[in-house]
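ok trying this again, last paste got cut off
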Amino acid sequence: MIFNVTDIQRHRHGGPTCKDGQVPHPARTRRFPPLLAAACLFLLVSGYFVVRFPDTPGADTASYFFNLLIALPAFVALVRQLGPARAAAALAAVSVFGYLIEGVGVATGFPYGDFSYGDPLGPKAFGLVPFLLPLSYVPLVIGTVAVFAGRWTALRTIAASAVLLVLVDGVLDPGAVSLRFWIWADGGPYYGVPLSNYAGWLLSGLCAAALLTLLGGRRLTRRPVRPGLLDSLLLSLSFWLGVSIFSALVFPAVLAAALLAFVVRHRIALAAAPTPAPAARHA
């Protein structure tokens, strides 16, 4: 008697398979995860307290806790996507790059412009860059790359990810300046941010996205992307949307809402994507 695994999968899922022989993943759904939605709402509301009570004792310590919570979903998803060794290498490489480019930026003004980090972000490596940088920057790189990885070529993924990172910083930087997380020496036309900052983000974004894409290899570019890779980006955007709203930063708030909708749509699509069915088997 001949059994086809596709028929078994069709029976198990209560419906037909996709045209290419793929079947829906039984644990995946088109619903947005309620826990993730609650976390996004919590971080949005927390923006109010960060804006209204910026000098709360222990705020710099709390920033480590919040950044770690925001970063964990992307870090865990990257380990599941790439495997522990490759994920550790990718995280280390992007983290070191982040420290280097930010350190050079603070010390020389290249490529962002003349700026320095404020005290709210806590102690700094060599007095230049906050130690928590990997917790805030690396998840943004992971999320923006994950939006495009697996669907586009590596070069297109890198370029698109860098552009998306610039847009994300269009939300992040005005809010951070209003909270004095960092200070621009000469200000700038965009909510106190110089336009050179965004040229710098494009350059650094290209490098960071290239590092992650190259180290991720085929496990990132040729394999279905895990939805969890986008979660830290969503959490971060939710927080900065709250900061923008409660700081009356109108355009950054609108941009944050648009980016959230864009990333949520991609996450739902990834969660609903079918997985390849096993090859037909005879008995």
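PB: full thing came through this time. The first strand starts at residue 115 and ends at 117.
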